[in-house]
From TrEMBL:
Biased composition annotated in UniProt, kind: Basic and acidic residues: 163-177
Biased composition (Basic residues): 22-35, 66-77, 111-123
Gene Ontology molecular functions: pyrophosphatase activity
Region (Disordered): 1-177
One Pfam family per UniProt: Ppx-GppA
Superkingdom, natural source: Bacteria
Protein's recorded name: Ppx/GppA family phosphatase
Residue ranges annotated for the Ppx/GppA phosphatase N-terminal domain, each copy included: 206-499
InterPro entries attached to this UniProt entry: ATPase_NBD, GppA/Ppx_hydrolase, Ppx_GppA_N
Amino acid sequence: MEDPEGGVKPQFDGASAAGRKDGKKSRRRKGKRGGQTRSAAHPASHELSGNAGQPARPIEDTAGHPARKRKRRRRGGHGVSQEGALRPQPMEQTGVAANAVRSDGDSPSSRRNRRKHRGKRGLQGRPLTSAKPSHIQLQENRIEETARAAVPRDVQNGAGRKGRPEGNAHQGDRQAPEHAWPEELYAALDLGTNNCRLLIAQPTRPGQFRVVDAFSRIVRLGEGLAASGRLSDEAMERAIEALRVCASKLRNREIRRMRLIATEACRQAVNGEEFLGRVVAETGLELEIIDRETEARLAVSGCSSLVGRETRSVVLFDIGGGSSEIAVIRIGDNRFSRLANHITHWTSLPVGVVTLSERHGGRDVTPELFEGMVREVEGMLGRFDCPEIEIAQTGDFHLIGTSGTVTTLAGVHLDLPRYDRRKVDGIWLSDDEVSAMQAKLLSWDFNSRAANPCIGPDRADLVLAGCAILEAIRRRWPSPRMRVADRGLREGLLTDMMADDGVWRRNRNRRGQRAK
């Protein structure tokens, strides 16, 4: 049998030698030679043995290892000629790698493996990028130019982003193209009975968004509303001052879409519409008063990611300043993309932490006073016509609380030196832990509650009223565990606006086009 390595050494000005000399070496070739070139690794790997014209045979190098065999030739006349000289071998250009050489001595399995992985990876292990059709490339270039032109020049240059954290300004090359329009921002404002809150966010992965800027301030707009039926001048001044800050944040950014809502205080007050007209005149913000059903659905939309796939029933409650929304959610085998579509029963109790504490007192709360508040809320829940929830097995049902009351309980339970949303949002509390935290807060006086960093003086007179509402809900729907949500109407507004605009669907389509 003829030695496959036989024949005269090829001249180094031939086609195959030029390919080895000038072309880049693949990772597989480099690995076989330890990253060195053939000439450097084996300076004299072959020599003529015997008489002239006899085939050359490999010899052992100075290190004692057998010399590496040269790459075999492809069958079909590209190998050794009858005269013993090598013919120049034509090179096939396949995308990036153009130096691959085959031989008739390859085993069938190796050839199959090479054909299988051909085109998947190029030189140096980099993925091969296929050229896009010209019309697709032109369309993407136009979309990119349009998006760039819509952004102000100062924003393109990085100016005018005072509200954005530095850590989010540059997220790396892998995280930068999270969606197709990096400057599309959405804003949601919630003016409640107790708080004024604003969120500005940017859509990222489907169903998620990244907060660009946020604002929250306790304004107590509903202070004195239960007694007089009107918004006081002092409360309106506090709210308008907070809304001026929100208006300034919104003016400093290019907002694609925003929704600004007002809830129970403006719904109940006789001068609610008059107050909103004053807000437009002094801040330029136009707020809409939403009804109780919309408020309940938005609370559910904001907490949809906290409901696991294994859950079959949920009671979600939002304890506000002037009202408390409760939604009963039953999830069957087919789960909708929007959790709010699974609401079977809902109610809005005309009581919140501000109104309940004003009626019963919130500074010095005794166990008897606390029980009186619980019974008042229980009477309201008794008029809520909702069938009992059937629990087949543990884990099918749980509570979700989205309010300052439950987040305060979670912060006290974790004994945080200062409130940290990242540690509170999504945490589970057992029924015994909730009871222990309520008893602990009830044992503290007003000064002790105000001194706690997770409560503070602004909530010290409201937290026990919220605990009374929570206790009434727990008695109506006993559950072994409760999940804490530091989110609510703002997150629901953002989720609904982004879903209605189809930004996550467009994002998936755009990623699919880039992958082709």
